[in-house]
Amino acid sequence: MTDATDIGIDDIRAAAERIAAHIRRTPVDLSEALSERMGVPVWLKLEHRQMTGAFKLRGATNAVLSLAEGKTPAGVTCASTGNHGRALAHAARAAGLSCIVCMSKLVPANKVEAIRRLGAEARIVGRSQDDAQEEVNRLVAEDGFADVPPFDHPNIIAGQGTIGLEMVEDVPDLDTVLIPLSGGGLVAGIAKAVKALKPSTRIVGISMARGAAMHASLAAGRPIAVEELPTLADSLGGGIGLQNAHTFRIARELLDDVVLLSEAEIAAGIRHAYEVEREIVEGAAAVGIAALLARKLKPTGPTIALLSGRNIAMDLHKRVLDGANRLDEDSGAALMETEGGAI
Q1: Quick check: helix, strand or coil at residue 99?
Q2: pLDDT given at position 152
Q3: pLDDT at site 338
């Protein structure tokens, strides 16, 4: 597979078969509270219960298993905000490959340590995904590693698309899908699968207002650089790559809408997930719930909100439950706010 614009339902089904023994098929549960609030059935796709705590395992596993069909590299590497690196470390260990994950200083410490526990090297480089990618490029050019990017790759997109297959199978009358939006691999894969099976389904990407690179790029009509800022939805940080080859085009073609959320709205989503749904999720995974709570969209039929990951630092989770609504610009600590500002 070489061109993501050519990814079809058969490619995604092939990915599903390839990774079936290596990942967990996650459940779809009805949220009574959100269904009552929105006046339509609202389902939660519990992908945060995936084996590595996030959806990224699907794409990483599909990519690593696909590598086995060609020349074996010296190892695998990637730039990551945490969850993809953890997934790649897991997939590489299963395949017996060395793994180096390159990350910026903005990646939370709990995600760095989780990667190291899986036997991979966590290499901290600079303050952005672009800085980390430069080190990935060096490992590929000088040391013979294979770059397994977090989103802009056909095998990654097809792997994430397996979530869309499950959604349509579990909710056949699906009307709207709410998907966390960052680099676009998740949106691209799910949209490819869902639109192929149910073309009328509405695909909504949801991101934070602070540093939403895909949204800014779509508005500009081309991939652009956006400053990375501390956010409760840290997994949605990072750029889409100025040379983006696949996900930007697919998002532009298949996304029906994009919703942006404030930090306080994301915090409310995290709290609702825990207090009402009894689920521990990170900020990026709470954005679908948050968009519904904030009434930033109005579904007209059965809706699925994807809970994409649970890899939140538990001290941060507790602070959010206690009322924190944003992160400090310098320290990254969770802060509470009143009408007069931070307290």
Answers
A1: strand
A2: 93
A3: 32
* Rounded alpha-carbon distances, angstroms, from residue 292 to 31, 231, 298, 310: 12, 19, 8, 19
Nearest CA-CA partner of 85 in 50, 66, 111, 117:
111
Top-confidence residue, 171 or 336: 171
How many beta carbons lie within 10 A of that of residue 30, not counting itself?
A: 12
Neighbours of 16 (CB within 10 A): 22
Residues 6+ apart with CB under 8 A from 330: none
Q: In what order do the strands lie in the sheet with 75-79?
A: 121-124, 99-103, 75-79, 145-147
Q: Checking phi first, is residue 274 left (phi over 0); if not, alpha (psi -120 to 50) or beta?
A: alpha
| pTM score, whole prediction | 0.90
Query: CB count, 10 Å around CB of 151?
Result: 25
Crossing angle of helices 247-254 and 213-220, rounded to 10°: 70
DSSP code string of 114-166? HHHHTT-EEEE-SSSHHHHHHHHHHHHHHH-EEE--SSSSHHHHHHHHHHHHH
Name the amino acid, one letter, at 205. G
219-252 core/surface letters (b: 16 or more CB in 10 A; e: else): eeeebeebebebbbbbbbbbbbbeebebbbebbe
> What CA–CA distance (Å, rounded) separates 314 from 294?
25
Rounded Cα distance between 161 and 127, Å, is 30
Hey, which bits of the chain come out as E strands? 28-30, 42-46, 75-79, 99-103, 121-124, 145-147, 176-180, 202-208, 257-261, 303-307, 324-327, 334-338, 341-342
